[in-house]
Amino acid sequence: METKNIMIVGVGGQGSLLASKLLGHLLMEQGYDVKVSEVHGMSQRGGSVVTYVRYGDKVASPVIDKGEADYIVSFELLEAARWLSYLKPDGQIVTSTQQIDPMPVITGAAVYPENLVEKMRAAGAKVDALDCLALAEQAGSSKAVNIVLMGRLSHYFDLPEEAWQKSLEAMVPPKFLELNKKAFALGKNA
User: Fold this and answer.
1) What DSSP string describes 119-185?
2) Which of 63, 66, 160, 167 is geometrically suited to a Cys-Cys bond with 26, CB 3.0 to 4.6 A?
3) Any idea what the CATH number is for the domain that residue 50 is in?
4) 145-183, pLDDT tens digit by residue?
């Protein structure tokens, strides 16, 4: 199997590390060689964050270059647009429609771009955009956006539901497990 590439992009404090660990666990359990990068960027709350998950028969490097991502999973719309150049021509974006103002917008030096989903589609990207924050809150916590996104991403993988559930059980602390299972289901079934 050729190596597949997933980029997880967002803003610090949104749970991208748990999402990448969950994917890494899931794919290793399926017998793939998996490389998960460390978090790159300003992981303090508010800064742009990127993690890479690569899997296949044999994966040499954890790094994904421009034009190589099969999937971009984004916690925030502007981050999806910012990393668009990394998507393969036939790649898929799975994004939350949440908008978090970056510092230039907060300070008034810039304006948050409008119609980002339409602009990404106009650039040729396949975009699956979902209000993951509302679904996470419906599950019981705004912090479950990461697991809502994993549920949505599961649509694009031919892996059994039980495999995803097993990885959730392995990676999520027991006291948050039911909430996260609900968040996963809401994302998957949205």
Assistant:
1) HHHHTT-EEEEE-HHHHHHHHT-GGGHHHHHHHHHGGGS---HHHHHHHHHHHS-GGGHHHHHHHHH
2) 167
3) 3.40.920.10
4) 999 999 999 999 999 999 999 999 999 999 999 999 999
DSSP notation for 78-97: HHHHHTGGGEEEEEEEEEE-
Structure tokens given for 121: 């589609």
Residue 49 has what pLDDT? Answer: 85
Closest C-alpha among 93, 181, 81 to residue 136: 181
Phi-psi region of 151 (alpha: psi -120 to 50; beta: other; left: phi over 0): alpha
CB 35 within 8 A of CB 6: no
- Domain count across the chain: 1
Which regions in the chain score pLDDT beneath 50? none
Return d(Cα 126, Cα 87) in angstroms, integer.
10
72 pairs with which residues across the strands? 7, 93
